[in-house]
Amino acid sequence: MTVSHRHQIRVYWEDTDAGGIVYHSNYLNFAERARSEFVRGLGIRQSDLAAEGFAFAVRRAEVDFRKPARLDDLLEVESTVDSVGGASMEVTQVIRRLDDGAELVRLNVRLAFISLDGRPARLPANLRQSLQERRN
To answer: Cβ–Cβ contacts within 10 Å for residue 7, how many?
Structure first.
């Protein structure tokens, strides 16, 4: 069983260029919001991690832009955990337009878990346990 999460996002003016098309870097923001909500759904708040001196950092992101999103589109970001290591996770994220199901963007993201001084750290046991429980 795969571990996945879905998060909806509406496209607003601030997300678009002068032509009403989502500016390319905003897809990274959409993906980040979806990952944050995914982790929140597992019972872990980013603010709690930061208070303990830890955070997730994007180590690598591969982005395949397939079709544009436009002003007022309702999008869904599906995040799927592909693998979990001692201090990292691999996540695939697909951004779709909800009205027609078109796949707009596909991201492959490697996340590192780090201390706030930038050193790698082990994933918290409660996060690892939550991911393992959902996989079984």
So the answer is: 21
Structure tokens given for 16: 């678009």
If DSSP codes are grouped into helix, strand and coil, which group holds residue 50? helix
Domain count of the fold of the chain: 1
Instruction: Kindly tell me if the per-residue pLDDT of 120 is higher than 90.
Output: yes
**Where in the sequence is the domain holding 95, given as residue range(s)?**
3-135
| Sequence letter at residue 50 | A
**Quick one: DSSP state of residue 44?**
-
Question: Cα–Cα distance between 73 and 38 in angstroms, integer?
Answer: 21
Predicted confidence band at 135 (pLDDT cuts at 50, 70, 90)? low
Nearest Cα to Cα of residue 109 among 127, 96, 130, 93: 93
CATH of residue 7's domain is 3.10.129.10
What does the alpha-carbon distance between residue 96 and residue 106 come to, in Å, rounded to a whole number? Answer: 9
Active site residue 99: no
The single residue of 17, 64, 72, 82 carrying the catalytic annotation is 17
